[in-house]
């Protein structure tokens, strides 16, 4: 039996599963992998209908056009980061039916509120990049090649969409159903090496399922993952550690990716020798895009070597 790969997608609604799997196959392998790959498609847990084919996906790095973002910003007027954080927290709790902790008051100093707050302030900082008082001053992070209103709208759209599904996973009661989808996808043919690839929230879901099952996995790949963030670790069902069955774990992130604010898993997830933390350059529009992550040599090469060896 040859190797197989299971993909776990991240935040937000997605295109239909067959198309999404094909997109990931193409980005990672350059071809359709047929039965050798499966998509753990949990989007229907949160979203009744898939995104129309090839519609821009802001969470995966294909944002709405800058003109639309500017128009939306103009209509709503400026909103301070503090107001944005409070509104998004309230909306997330309302979407969960008012269940779970009062995320605006009780979790404002912890849980995922801290992550949301950090993401929002970093987004606001990047939106202002290039407008300093010293012309030509070096910037610590690369600003997006969009006008400031477009950058602001794009980043806040990413934050808002990402947080709602994360909130639903940890606090809104959607976690068990999402994990069940991943567990079913992992229950494929036995015998060959297994690779699991998780993006963003998908990395968290994959990690928790593998931790619970102790399933043998030759290679776990996480990209744009928030698993290194303390507020996310606080919500995990078990203390952070490499899942017992995972032989090797490669964690890749871009320094500008707002979802992966902390880039090193090794200090918290033992045994550290099984983990390789990688900084890569993701040049998707918001630096979180899955296609750009999967196209990185550091991400692709170990997976392809395993498949080439397994086919030999």
Automatic annotation (TrEMBL):
Record region (Disordered): 48-82
Annotated Basic and acidic residues bias: 48-77
Domain of life (superkingdom): Bacteria
Protein name per UniProt: Thioesterase domain-containing protein
